[in-house]
Specification:
Mean pLDDT: 82
CATH class of the largest domain: Mainly Alpha
Helix content: 40-55%
Order of helices and strands: EEHHHHEEHH
Largest sheet: 2 strands, antiparallel
Number of domains: 2
Strand content: 5-15%
Strand order of the largest sheet: 1-2
Structural class: mainly alpha
CATH architecture of the largest domain: Up-down Bundle
Low-confidence stretches: none
Number of strands: 4
Shape: elongated
């Protein structure tokens, strides 16, 4: 657990999710040192927390704040969305770059580019000794990008389903 005193009267406590309930139960047992708070009926540190930031009810149940496990599940779904745009084979002319949507521009180190594989393939395509072969690579990479977008869409459908069921 980590604690911090803000100003002269506010105690902030941070803990891993498994320790939240322990921290709340401990705060219920600590008598409120502020006489004005005690006069207002807030006899414990926990009562003052509820008054200042009412994120929980008197039974310790969350009010409108998702549990840490739900937040973790949402973050996992976001990570799956991001992974949908990674290609293990890499970009056509830069196999060490795996992200299909974003990478630095291969021809201008100060700029980034969206769809870098397509940008690389289309750059000076008319000067290529085999333009037909290059256009074939453009078509192939375009199909890879479309597949990634469809996969990301499927991931978003899962997110929507999860959000409807959970929150």
């Amino acid at each position: 657990m980590d604690t911090a005193v803000v100003g002269n009267d506010t105690l902030r406590l941070g803990a891993v999710p498994l320790m939240h309930k322990v921290a709340y139960e401990a705060a219920k047992k600590v008598e409120n040192p502020n006489p004005a708070e005690r006069a207002a009926g807030r006899t414990s540190v926990y009562d003052t927390w509820l008054h200042i930031e009412p994120w929980m009810d008197k039974n310790g149940q969350s009010k409108g704040v998702p549990s840490p496990y739900i937040i973790r599940q949402i973050k996992d779904l976001m990570m799956l969305l991001e992974r949908a745009f990674l290609d293990p084979a890499g970009l056509p002319l830069r196999p060490l770059k795996k992200h299909l949507l974003f990478a630095e521009n291969a021809h201008d180190v100060y700029a980034g580019s969206s769809f870098p594989g397509l940008i690389d393939l289309l750059f000076q395509i008319d000067l290529d000794p085999d333009p037909q072969g290059r256009w074939e690579r453009v078509r192939h990479h375009f199909s890879v990008i479309l597949h990634a977008i469809q996969s990301a869409g499927a991931t978003l459908r899962e997110v929507k389903r999860f959000m409807m069921e959970t929150l």
